[in-house]
User: What shape does this take?
Amino acid sequence: MDELSEIFGSLSEVLEITPLEVVAAVFVIIFFIALFVVIFMGYFRIILNIAYFAYPNARVKAIGNPCIECVQISELAELGSVSEVMEKIRRFHYEINISEMTDIEGIEVALGALYLRDCKKIEETAPEGTKSFFRAYCLMVEADSLKTALRAKDAGLPPDEIERKLIPVCELTLVMIRKIADARDVEEVILLLQNTAYNTAFTTGVHEHYIREKAILPLELALDRFVFQELHASVFRVDASMVAPIRKFVSTFSDITNLKTILRAKSDGVDNEVILDAIVTPGSDLPESKLKQLTELKDIVEIAARLEGTPYRSPIEKVLPLCQESGSIRPLETALENMLLASVLTLDITYPHGAGPLIKFIVGKQYEIKNIRAVLWGIKEDLPGEKIREVVICEGVAA
Assistant: This one.
């Protein structure tokens, strides 16, 4: 203490100020140094995140999503055969040997395998702080294969055919696929899944309902609920500096999924209790209370009116006349799909050095595959290009 007093005394003599003023000046200097460090660390974290995302973002931008571009899809729709379409998309990193495919169903399985490969690659290359989300997203894709397995087993398909329909990934290993294919029935498949990440998906109530009713739908809904629970839970495990685009995507994805479910169910005359059972974890714009209100309404016109104050009202109202004219809710579903695609394109622009490009790529790739499937089936059914273009989801189409 005596040494500090001497130092402050010497400084006060040299600077011709009082010791108290010297102490105050030192504290001011320390404050500004600390402030500089805090600001620098904030910028340093931003720079570090940009570095983390540099390789995976550069990779997906190089590949792109050409099959969500209206021009590319129009060109595919005007081709005359399945083989021409497959040859065209090989240039877009869809390297499928069509000579090994016997039908479009086989091509669909191959497309699904490529998509799962891309999902896993994103999970592997994404920064550590975001891996929990991309792992949860891969579960969603994997769950679709499990639904196929359940439907195939319920339909009594032979084991070799079930194996051909399933794609090995994550929990669904080659060994697990063989076990599922060889299982006696759906109940045995459920038991096999008890030793996987899906052990909490099929609750006792869901299992008992299947045993009693022999209905596959509750099992599929249970998988959907499980996946969305995992997606929402993953958001809380993402690094705080990287979470913004992921949180926005999960919320919008949940809202649109629930809205599509309600609209489809109302169109089909499904009971309110069944609709509520199909609802997944809600997003921020359509919380649980709002969803319950929507399920109690009579028709899609009332639902559209009750969406006042949400971003979903305008897109739905725009296509209501088309729905009433055609007697189908397909225009509504397409509008919502376009809205989801537009939202990930916005994330790509808003968060170009974060997870935005990765989310845009992985969601865009899913729409690419849907578009390719629509084109393939349209050509097989000899539909004109104009009809095919009505059912595809393209970048830049107004919702």
